[in-house]
């Protein structure tokens, strides 16, 4: 069947070459006749013979070129299949040295064959190896199997577990090979490929300075562990979809410092699904996104958990249309959003829990400044957020159209000293609790900015009946009290 298809394709190519040659000759004749004033004379027999020979030579040359091209392409395809198969066979070997050689062989095939499909095929194999089941505790084991004897309903059962010998060395080699080819200094770049690391386990991963420019980069449910820093420092994520959904960062420290999440080209059909996702991610150790840049359609840290000693977003810029930390939880010793900028259309900290000992939004820009970018930020919402411990919004700018703290749980030492209440509407309506909140107009209600609600200050709690606001209502209330007496 394949031979028939190949012959049909070759015949079609030859016919196309013949027709193309005839068309070219026809156009040339027409140009000589019409545009250059060539005279039409009755050709002699010798001239007709010369024309026929030239035409035959042209057609023959075109056919020869087509056949040679097809032969070269088939040879290249066969060579790729041979090299790819040999490298894949090495990766499946039981010996660790052979598997490491297979990693470099597969990388060499990807480097040599620059066609996007073939290079992507090699990358998929390397990523697929990292997605295989792996137990870090057994990563340096010299054994290939382990047996376990258990009692099951009074019957002794022996279970044998097989695993790849010394697999940590192979995995570290794969990560290093990929990371080296993603850096701007790489001789051969793989940056435009897609990478699927879903469910993979990484130990001491170093993707610093890497450039991920493919349509999709997936670290969904990936696990990051190790004694050294997990580094994405200065990494650039330029594809339409970047996801760390459900990823577990178990190492002592993770850094995304100076990373850039900015989608360069997004098709209209991908606009709803494009974005950067850390939904349900867990950071067990310290993590820093200091001076990182988030752009594109959306940035989502929804339900993410930050449980390390320190969490840093200092100087980060959130410019995506939607930035969401909804129902995220910040724990540990210190959380810093100092000098961070939230300038997208909508920023959500709805139902976010701030449980760290100290949280700082000092000098942060919460919403674009209306005098520079009128109407850019529609809403920044901390509705139903739980703000516990020592939290500072000192010198922060609350800008845009609306900033919402409605239904918040304020309990601790929450400071808005020297904050600039610039938004058109800023609301603290019906908080769940109001303990330890400090504002510049405390004790002088008349100094409260007119754009800050409610009028009654401090705000009545959610379970408090609304206060009497007019003399007529006061008379009615008194009359009701007298009649009840």
Characterization of the model:
The radius of gyration is 34 Å and the shape is flat. The strands form 4 sheets. The protein has a 16-stranded parallel sheet that branches. The chain is built from 6 helices and 38 strands. The protein has 485 residues and is an alpha/beta fold. The N and C termini lie far apart (101 Å).
Strand and helix map with partners:
Layout: H1 2-35, H2 45-91, H3 96-112, H4 116-130, E1 145-152, E2 155-162, H5 167-182, E3 195-196, E4 201-203, E5 211-212, E6 216-218, E7 223-225, E8 230-231, E9 236-237, E10 241-243, E11 248-249, E12 253-255, E13 260-261, E14 275-277, E15 282-283, E16 286-288, E17 293-294, E18 298-300, E19 305-306, E20 310-312, E21 317-318, E22 322-324, E23 329-330, E24 334-336, E25 341-342, E26 346-348, E27 353-354, E28 358-360, E29 365-366, E30 379-381, E31 386-392, E32 397-398, E33 402-404, E34 409-415, E35 420-421, E36 425-427, E37 433-438, E38 452-453, H6 471-484
Parallel strand pairs: 3-6, 4-7, 5-9, 6-10, 7-11, 8-12, 9-13, 10-14, 11-15, 12-16, 13-17, 14-18, 15-19, 16-20, 17-21, 18-22, 19-23, 20-24, 21-25, 22-26, 23-27, 24-28, 25-29, 26-30, 27-31, 28-31, 29-32, 30-33, 31-34, 32-35, 33-36, 34-37, 36-38
Antiparallel strand pairs: 1-2
Helix pairs in contact: 1-2, 2-3, 2-4, 3-4, 3-5
Give the structure's gist in a few sentences:
The protein has 485 residues and is an alpha/beta fold. Helices cover 29% and strands 24% of the residues.
Characterize the largest beta sheet: strand count, sense, and whether it forms a barrel. Answer: 16 strands, parallel
Could you tell me the number of beta strands? Answer: 38
Poorly predicted runs: 468-485
Rounded to an integer in angstroms, the radius of gyration calculated over CA atoms is: 34 Å
Average pLDDT, all residues: 83
